[in-house]
Automatic annotation (TrEMBL):
<feature type="transmembrane region" description="Helical">
    <location>
        <begin position="66"/>
        <end position="87"/>
    </location>
</feature>
<feature type="transmembrane region" description="Helical">
    <location>
        <begin position="465"/>
        <end position="485"/>
    </location>
</feature>
<dbReference type="InterPro" id="IPR018456">
    <property type="entry name" value="PTR2_symporter_CS"/>
</dbReference>
<dbReference type="Pfam" id="PF00854">
    <property type="entry name" value="PTR2"/>
</dbReference>
<feature type="transmembrane region" description="Helical">
    <location>
        <begin position="234"/>
        <end position="253"/>
    </location>
</feature>
<protein>
    <submittedName>
        <fullName>Peptide MFS transporter</fullName>
    </submittedName>
</protein>
<comment type="similarity">
    <text>Belongs to the major facilitator superfamily. Proton-dependent oligopeptide transporter (POT/PTR) (TC 2.A.17) family.</text>
</comment>
<feature type="transmembrane region" description="Helical">
    <location>
        <begin position="402"/>
        <end position="426"/>
    </location>
</feature>
<feature type="transmembrane region" description="Helical">
    <location>
        <begin position="337"/>
        <end position="358"/>
    </location>
</feature>
<feature type="transmembrane region" description="Helical">
    <location>
        <begin position="292"/>
        <end position="309"/>
    </location>
</feature>
<dbReference type="InterPro" id="IPR036259">
    <property type="entry name" value="MFS_trans_sf"/>
</dbReference>
<keyword id="KW-0812">Transmembrane</keyword>
<dbReference type="InterPro" id="IPR020846">
    <property type="entry name" value="MFS_dom"/>
</dbReference>
<feature type="transmembrane region" description="Helical">
    <location>
        <begin position="185"/>
        <end position="205"/>
    </location>
</feature>
<feature type="transmembrane region" description="Helical">
    <location>
        <begin position="370"/>
        <end position="390"/>
    </location>
</feature>
<feature type="transmembrane region" description="Helical">
    <location>
        <begin position="99"/>
        <end position="130"/>
    </location>
</feature>
<keyword id="KW-0813">Transport</keyword>
Amino acid sequence: MDSSDKDKIVQSVPQTGFFGHPRGLFTLFFTEFWERFSYYGMRAILLYYMYYEVTRGGLGLDQETAASIMAIYGSLVYMSGIIGGWVADRLIGTSKTVFYGGVLIMLGHIVLALPAGVMALFISMGFIVIGTGLLKPNVSSIVGDVYSDEDPRRDSGFSIFYMGINAGALIAPLIVGTVGQQYNFHLGFSLAAVGMFLGLSLFVVTKRKTLGLAGTYVVNPLTGEEKRKAFSRIGIGALLVVLLGAAGIVTGLLTIERFVFTVSILGIVIPAAYFVVMYRSPKTSDVERSRLLAYIPLFIAAMMFWAIQEQGSIILARYADKRTQLSFAGIELQSSWFQSLNPLFIVVLAPVFAWLWVKLGSRQPTTPKKFSFGLLFAGLSFLVMIVPAYMNGTESPVNPMWLVLSFFLVVIGELCLSPVGLSATTKLAPSAFTAQTMSLWFLTNASAQAINAQIVRFYKPETEILYFGAIGGLSIILGLILYLISSKIHGMMKGVN
Ligand code: GLU
Ligand code: ASP
């Protein structure tokens, strides 16, 4: 898109009307708020739905398989951002892509709301994987479109949007979790569908008045010929996948384990291919090559971070259910409520961190240093979970404050890493590939969860000390290494901070 198009878009968006920010931010904030409400509400009960016995309304899967499915599902949800980025950039623009994404997500939750067993679970996952891939990267990228490049409100606009994400994630477990666990899982999932319906309606009703032309442009449209080629390739590819999948299921060759394993491999192959293509592209300059090399350790660090952070809704969720005293201080706690702790701490502490970075000004740590703090705190969040098992063994239920402490620590790390991660990706990716930076950043999470899918099955109360110790320890070691080489990486970033 050239700069006159960019100006036209910015001019079409009412520049005030939402806490001193462009009115479009209102629409984007609440669309993403409700989308995250539906996603995190669903995830707060999904693990329990999968492994609770049938008599308790669950599917009765074993706990290890359920954990592995949670991880691979999370991985696919972020991997499909690649599709969402492509559809928006080359076919229909971000705004329409967000709309179709929202529709698919809502359908996905509706399917889960029906009491229809394992098949419905997989169908729902298919809808939500594609839907989130279409919606999430694009709704964030429209945030960038409603400000001019020089607008000083831009960064704080992204921070407000980030609060929307976490506010949705905060209330979802309390509502969907409570209804899902106390009454009925399917009723819980139907509330997730209602949430997405509200977000989608709000988007459709308000976007004309608030977003102007933002999201309506197709940045790099396919020509007629390219379209024909792309569609026939996609058609053939999809047909092959369906045929192979069907043949695999019929012959019994395609088991859940094999499917999960394949996606785990993709989680490594896709980012590696991205790096090779960007590095070798003739459009990439020497300075950009150096920045790209600097980005590799940051990518790995972000992967390690998300691997731990995302286990909050898998391993720590199982811990909340099986290892924690749920009658506490006279209240009967629901295990799903613990999922509100991460976003709660984010909402409370994000402004503190924003203030801290501003106060430190030019003395604030460089991006590689912030990433290393992210790893140290993530590692600590797992190491503290060794203490209760070490002190009292793994038989007696643990005081819930241990989980509170663990979520608190991971959030300190998250606030060092996550808000700067996307901006670092934007600045370090070669300019010919900027359209893909959002997908590239989401790949840090997708790859992390692809690997998690293999790791989480090793957790059992009996292996707890080793499990938390090994993963937490690895994160701390990587954090220390990153800290030691941070000045070198910073140098290779060639002027990017
Ligand atoms: N919790 C974040 C969100 O839902 C994670 C996204 C990421 O991997 O950056 O937006
Ligand atoms: N902190 C996560 C994110 O930024 C939300 C969560 O894990 O609940 O959206």
